[in-house]
Amino acid sequence: MQILITGILLGGVYAIVAMGLSLQYGVARIMNLASGEMLVAGAFAAFWVVMAHSFSPYVALLWVVPGAFVFNWLIYRYLLLPLVRRAKSRGQLEVDSILVTFGLSFALVGIFLMVFGGSFFNYSYLSRPVEFMGSRYGLNRVVAFWIAVAICAALWYWIHYTRSGMAIRAVSVDPVSAGLVAIDVPRMSTFAFALGGAVAASGGVLLSTFLTFDASVGIVFTMKALIIVIMGGVGDMRGAIVAALVLGMTETVVARLVDPGLTLASAYLLFVLVLLFRPQGLFGRSTT
User: Where found, per UniProt (predicted)?
Assistant: First the structure.
């Protein structure tokens, strides 16, 4: 039971990281390999708030979210939109965007190393245990989990019960048909990409409260987000949440019962199994 609950706590935070990439890939058709660097930027912002001002790290959300939104909007508008306009097929767009965002990832890592150095960073926040069902869990993990749940619930409601969310879903299903019913597809794609970056950065703030991080750890979370998105089904938020919980529990089981050094290997093994036996994702339908 302790392993199960710990896995759920971790998977809940993974879910918010994956939902950012799901918005970018599912709607804007951009496989953003620099998504993890947005997470690292959010983590460094939270670290600075705690160490320099002794505030709660969640105060950093007040400027991390809008700042990441604007930064990702500029990336899409001036770096990726020209690729979208010149791409003759979705396959070409995916290849071009992977190459560009891969280079952007290295550039951001270089900036982080120049500013913060190559050391590992962490801080103590709500680092006290809380007891539940006879076991103890870190209060920082519990708080991060419930904030992640709140953000995911707000995104879910917006996507499914608002007019703009309906437009986002329409672009995700078929951008050509969406344009035929007066939806501004470039505008919606730009908004989805910017929102995805902001969500990923907020996930970095949450993760920084209980994980040690450095300037180059972003690639690890990019790959985990990619695993979750593929496992859950591209563009399917329900699948992303379930896949995040599965990944969190898998890593926890391996860390507790086998070897903590094999958690990343277990994630990749899970990814390979999904590609082999369920390539359409947990809730996707097989192509006909």
Answer: Cell inner membrane
In tens, the pLDDT along 62-74 reads 888 999 999 999 9
Question: What CA–CA distance (Å, rounded) separates 79 from 72?
Answer: 10
As a whole number of angstroms, the distance between CA 50 and CA 283 comes to 40
Q: Find the CATH number of the domain harbouring 17.
A: 1.10.3470
Q: What DSSP character marks residue 188?
A: H
Q: How does pLDDT run across 70-124, given as a tens digit for each residue?
A: 999 999 999 888 888 887 777 788 888 888 999 999 999 999 999 888 889 988 8
User: What distance in Å separates the CA atoms of residue 101 and residue 107, rounded to the nearest whole number?
Assistant: 10
Q: How far is CA 136 from CA 1, 5, 210, in A?
A: 11, 10, 15
In whole angstroms, give the CA distance from residue 147 to residue 144.
Answer: 5
Which tokens in the block code for residue 170?
């329409």
What is the domain extent for residue 22? 2-277
**Residue 115 in domain:** yes
Q: Tell which residue, 68, 23, 17, 72, has the closest CA to residue 45.
A: 68
Residue 114 located in a structural domain: yes
